[in-house]
Structures are given as C-alpha cells and as structure tokens.
Amino acid sequence: MKNLIYICIAATSLLFMSCEDFLDTSNLTKKDTSNYPQTLTDAQQMITGIYSNLNYAVASPASSSYFVSELVSDDRFGGGGENDKMVQALDLMLNYGSSMLQDFWNTRYKGIFRANMAIETLDNCSGFESDDQKNQIKGEAYFMRAFFYSEMATLFGQVPLVVATDPVNLPKATPEELYAQIATDLKTAIEMMPSKPYTSVEAGHATKWAAEALMARVYLFYTGFYTKDALPLVGGGSVSKDQVVAWLEDCIENSGHTLVGDYRNLWSYTNKYTVEDYDYTKGKGLKWVEDDGAVNPETMFSVKFSNFPSWSTTIGYANQNALYFGIRGGQDLAKTFPFGQGWGMGPVNPTLWNDWKAAEPTDIRRSASIIDIPQELPNYTKGGWADFVQETDYWQKKFSPVSAKNTEGGYASSYSVLMYNTPENFQLDNTMDQVIIRLADVYLMHSELTQTNTYMNKVRERAGLTDKPYSLANIQNERRWELAFEGTRWNDIRRWGLAADLLDKQIGVACYYKATADVTKSFGGGYKARYNATKGFFPIPEAQIALSQGVLVQNDGWGTTGAEYTGWK
Predict the structure, then answer these.
(1) 292 CB neighbour count, 10 Å cutoff
(2) Strand, coil or helix: 302
(3) What are the residues whose beta carbons fall under 8 Å from the beta carbon of 189, sequence distance 6 or more?
(4) pTM (2 d.p.)
(5) Cβ contacts of 477 within 8 Å, gap of 6 or more
(6) In three state form, how does the secondary structure of 248-263 look?
(7) 236-257 confidence digits (pLDDT tens)
(8) Cβ atoms of residues 476 and 483 within 8 Å
(9) Residue 105: strand, helix, or coil
(10) What residues have CB less than 8 Å from 366, skipping those under 6 apart?
C-alpha cells in the first residue's frame, strides 16, 4: 500500500494554482507528463505550483511548522477558547486527536512532490530567455524542496525522504540522510542561481541569497541539536562552518538587501491608513515599508498573499496566522484599535516582557513587538467570547490583524480594505507578508558563527542600543528580542540545549481563565518531562503509520495516555 503522502497527488500535481492574484495560470487539465512541461510558460507554472504550497499550509495554520514553533516556545502560551484543545496541546507538547498534524504532513509532501517533478522535468523545457533565467527557476525548485524538508525535519525529526516522483512506501530517514539532502539541495541552489541583486527576482520567489541564509539556519540547528561540527552532503563530503560564513558574507555584501531604518516600519501597524490614528505611532514619522505593495528590502523570503482571497479558492491566500494569532474577538474594534479581532491563540508569556524590560529597558523593539494591553488598550474587555484560556496582559503586534478608521467615522477590520479595496471580512482581509527570513537574522547568525560582535551591534544600533561585546548569552538575547514571534525561538532554544529548563519555567505564570485570575499548570508530567521524552519532536499522524502498514513507526514520547490532552479544566 502506498503512503498517504501520495494520495490525491497524481490528480492534482499538474493543476498548479497561483499564490498571487497577478500570477494567472492557464488550464492544464488536458496536460500530462507526455506533453508537460515543454515551454518557458510551463516551467513558470510549475514553480508557481510549488510556491502555492506555502499558502495551502497557511490555510490550516494550527498544524503548520511556524504555528507549532510559536506555541511550543517559552515565549507564548496556547490560548484560544475552551474548545481549541489542539493549540493548548501543542503548547504543552501533548497530543489531541489521532492525527493532529495531518494537514501539514499532507501539504508539505505535496509540495515536495511538485518540487521533485520540477527537478526531474525542467530540463525538458525550451524557450528560456537566458541561462540565468533557467538556472534561477531550477534553483528555486531545489530551494523549495530543501525548505520543505527543513520544516519537516525540525517538526517531526525523522520522516520519509522522497526525492523522486515514483511513489514508494519508505521508512523514516536518519537525521544524517535528511540533512545531507537539505544541505545538498541548498548548495545546488546557491551554486545554480545567479548572483544578482534580489530586486532582479520576482517578489516572493527564492533567491541565491535566501538559500545562503537558509543554509546557515539549517547548519546552526543540525550542528547544535545533534552536536556535530559540519553538515553532511549526499554522496560524501560536508558543509563546514567556514563555508557557511563565506556564504553569509556573500549575502550581506552582494544581495542588495538592507536593514529597514526604523524597526517599527517593518510591521503593518505603521501602514498609512492607521499610523496617525494609533497613539503609539502617531507623530513619529513612521511609514510601513510594504505600503501600497512596496517590496521590503529586509525580507529575504516570505509567504505572499492575495489582496482578493475567497472561500472558493483557498483561505490560505489570506494570512490565517494573523487571524489565529489575533486578540480573541467578541468586542467592538474601538476597544482594540488598531488591532483587529482573531481567535486568541498564542498569548505572550509575561516572562518575555519582564525579562526584556530588565535586560534592555530602553529597547524600542519591546513595545514595537508586544502590546501591553492595560497600558495601550485600556477599554479592552477580558475573556473574548467568555471562554478565553491562558489569556495574559500581553499580545504580539507583528502578525496581528491591523484595523483602520474609515471615512464614515467607523472602523475597517483591516487596513487592506482601504489600501487595496479588499472585501471586508476579518477572516480573509489580513494580507501582510508572513516573514520567514530577513537580513537581521543573517546578521545575527553571522555574529554567532564567527563569535564577533560587528553585525550583532548593527542590529542593536537600529534599536537605539549601545554596543555590546560578543558572548553566547548576548547573542541569545539579541535573537530573542529581534526575532520575537517570527518562528525562530523554538529551534534556537533546542539547539542551545536550553529548551527543557526554559519551558519548565512556564509553570505557575499568571494568566486568566474566562477573565478570572489563573496560573499556567503542569500537564503530562510537566514541560521538562514532555521535552525530555520527545526531544521536541511531534507525533507522526497515525493515519500515515496505518497506511504505511508498519513501515513508519511513531516518534518517542507519543502514543500513551499520559501524552493526551483532555482540556484546561
């Protein structure tokens, strides 16, 4: 029996959909592997189909790698309502349901299938305008396969390594096999894609520079978590630290990416329809770098969204992470302005606010990243829909829905309604990019790998802070402050060997349950016990194990009654 990762792929593998409203594709229903791909247009459609996988994952965000990484880290709680048991389970490293991460597993293997098909067939295409164009497109396919597998490897640990379109029922690959493939694909992408400024590539597409940055992220996790000194390559050889540093320096010097001058301009609450009505930003001369669709010079790779998503395509063409991570609804927008309503998942752990304030009291990034609700939203009513679990006095700003005042004196649920005429629907009108890698991360990775402070202090300088000497503790703090809520914290504390102890400190932290004072609790033996049992890897969906007829085996720490979550109360 074939593994479920192949079910439904054959019928859809050539029916690629665009992830941008301006990237239209022709009807491919009469095309098959005998006549497709053959042309430049075919090649471009294949790549568009791979990128659309990013949006399909966002359509079911609660099972995605980014979402899980945010909830399970020490800086956020599960939250949501009483019935949102899966998100609370993720925060506690417990299981809810037989296949709680099934959607992400299926989606990413479909993306891997599409990348495999492109890698196998792009050389059949003719009509490329230049060798650079052909190499760019092929390099993107290798990058995307590496990106998909890097997410799977950090979320599940060991997964089947499928690098061809022929369906087979494979066991879990070893970490060495997985990371050798990831590193080899990234090395191929780096060497294949042209060394041209990022502005020469269509917005939302991967570049050589994004591949160099992702290589560093993969290197740091693999060598740190598995205590290795290099990344393996397929067929032998390895990627050394010196190579990774050289690639980062190439990226810094030649990519054309720059830091945005003011940290606050990275985030959508500084958009032109909101900025002067929000007390925090009013009169400060701030301007969102993405106003009117402008390209953010700091963003190296991100998920792009359509300004006109609909229920008839996929809701993943709107930023569902923003919806899920928005303040839980049930009250007027006037009470939460400029932040719109959402499902209330991922409340900020007060410890983050307090640690940050104690370490860097003048750091502008703290208030740029976190809403201090009692101070900023004094009319806010606790308990959203009267069922809010693990609510705190702090909320993240970076990827929250952002509302705007309309000309009638009321409120639009999103700035995009005014900026792009997006139909007003708080579930569909969040269109800000979901940033995956930006240049500040590259600067901090360079400092960590070289144990130097030059680029770390460039990041600090933007935040209005004085220089600090390099130390592991200093770089750990800088990454926590600079990249808060961007999906990096979880794998950082795992590779540094800090996860078990930091997670355990979440027990007994003040929160609210249905608007009344509460504290976070210990479930399943506690955070440290769950981390030590699982090493931070989540369960393979039971449906996959069943369909594999025993070829796949469940990850350690899962499948027992003690690993099940039944509810907050």
Answers:
(1) 9
(2) strand
(3) 139, 140, 142, 143, 146, 206, 208, 211
(4) 0.94
(5) 359, 360
(6) HHHHHHHCCCCCCCCH
(7) 999 999 999 999 999 999 999 9
(8) no
(9) helix
(10) 353, 356, 357, 360, 481
